[in-house]
Amino acid sequence: MKILDLQNEFRELIAQLRHEIEAASAMGQFDAHKVSENLMCGLLRELCDWSALRNLNTEQSNFPGIDLADDTHRVAIQITATADIGKVKYTLEQFVSHDLHQRYDRLIVYVLTAKQGSYSQAAIEVACAGKHQFSAGTDVWDYKELCSKAADAEPHKLQAALNHLKAYLRGVPVGLADEDIDPPLAPAESLTANLVELYFPSTLYIARLSVDLVERHGKRKPGLWRETIREFNQENDSAVPSAYVIHSGNLVSFFDLTDRDNPYKHLIESGTTEAHRPGDYWTIDEDHERVFKSLLRFSLQQRLFKERVRWENDGGEFVFLPLEDGLNQREETWQGEKKAKRTVFARRFNKKDRSKVYLQKHLSFAVEFLLFGDLWFMAITPSWFFSYGAAFKESGFSQDNLSWIKRQENNQQVMNHFRFLSAWLRTIDDEDLFSEKKLTDSFLSFGSALTLGGAPSLEESGWATLPSASEEDSENPTRMFG
Which helix (H) or strand (E) holds 80? Predict the structure, then answer.
């Protein structure tokens, strides 16, 4: 039957679209995503009978929160290749913060690749803030929902959708012929970058510092503002979260500074608070982008402090501490290809005198915040930190130990450290949703690691790890680190 031929062709082409988007994402090529907005607009218009569906980004560059909308049927759609809960939360936060819930009764998040098996409805309800009803089960779509619509579509509707799909996927054949290129001898590889996508609130708050605080700071350098605030708080027997920056006489934070109970109320002038979109702030100039990156770092510092991960300013890295003082080891469970445990802190004792601590070893990592287009990523560089004493001060042998362990680790071991860290960050992100105490100041959410495809195959036999040193002495670093 003709209808079966149409359905089969649709199924093949929508699968092709999915794989092309996955490959483009892996290669860091996001132009295909923009083209897909128009492609999906035509498909959904035909298959869902949303006759007035249009691409909002053709009317206003980078329309906030949504990409497509039908004002007649009051439905809005976000098109994305990112499937994780962080993207869904961010979309919903943008949707309600711009009052789009008053204009559209339904929001659909369409994932161009494949959606997750499940999403936390609790996380979704927090993001909706009671202003919009969104169901993870019915409002997150991918190719499966589209195929279901195609299976039920009338033949003329399905034919129109197919014509639209083929026009974008096939177009006019251009480029080199097959005989003009030499195919690679080895299949291409996929590379995992040390980047995870970063999400944050859709509103940034800026308020003038109080006159008393400005007078106290006097002619001190701008870089000493946090020291001034620390002294000011000690005199007033108060403390503030670290998730703020000071710039041009203003306090900048994701905390809602219009809230009379905000933690910085004694540091700012009442009535001076302004709310801005983060993108409007970091795009002012390079200086404001630098300030915004500092805010991300201090917000991360505040978030990880709750997880007993301490910021070491001298080394510029985050360091895992034991979950409680006095514990000799800390293990974290994480999900990679399978569930595993990772030791992130260990205290080693002197072999001859077990009452004496020989060494304290911590997993650590440095971060850098990078902006690609309108997407923010956090680069993670794993490392190790070595300390002594109950205050975990850096050991005098730290650099020697670090140099030794870096010489011993191969690429796969470093990759495993990164995989653990990115998985652990997503785990605490999920756990955070169920703790009422943390909802007000857990501003950052973490996406999946960025994978890049199409890389040439490399022979890695010359990259093998160096042979291990002798293990005759039980206090040799090989035993402690291996």
Answer: strand 75-80
Alpha helices of 153-224 — where are they, by DSSP H? 155-169, 211-217
Phi, psi of 65 (to 5 degrees): 85, -35
285 vs 166, more confident:
285
Q: How many CB atoms lie within 10 A of CB 63?
A: 19
Closest of 39, 325, 342 to residue 161, by C-alpha: 39
Check if the beta carbon of residue 430 is closer than 8 Å to that of residue 84: no
Any idea how long the chain is? 482
Instruction: Compute the distance between CA of residue 94 and CA of residue 336 in angstroms, rounded to an integer.
Output: 31
Neighbouring CB atoms inside 10 A of 75's CB total 20
Q: Among 192-206, 250-264, 403-417, where is mean pLDDT lowest? A: 403-417
82 and 102 in contact (C-beta within 8 Å)?
Answer: no
User: CA of 115: how far to CAs of 12, 30, 435, 446, 463, in Å?
Assistant: 19, 18, 26, 17, 37
User: Rg (Cα) of the chain, in Å, rounded?
Assistant: 26
Among residues 401, 410, 377, 394, the alpha carbon closest in space to that of 195 is found at 377
pLDDT over threshold 60, residue 180? no
What's residue 32's pLDDT? 55
Token code pair at residue 451: 């994978």
Tokens of 79: 């098109």
**H or E segment to which residue 421 belongs:** helix 411-432
DSSP annotation of 268 reads B
Element housing 227 (H / E) = helix 225-235
The HSE-up count of residue 385 (CA atoms within 13 Å, CB side) is 27
Percent of the chain with pLDDT over 90: 40
Q: Comparing 210-214, 367-371, 412-416, which segment has the lowest mean pLDDT?
A: 412-416
> Token digits for 315?
């080394």
CA quadruple 140, 142, 146, 148: dihedral sign: negative
Q: Which of 100, 103, 113, 169 is nearest to 140 (CA)?
A: 113
Contact 7, 151 (CB under 8 A): yes
Name the 3-class secondary structure at 425: helix
Q: What is the pLDDT of residue 473?
A: 35
What is the token pair recorded at 326? 């006095």
For residue 132, CA distances in Å to 101, 104, 353 come to 6, 10, 63
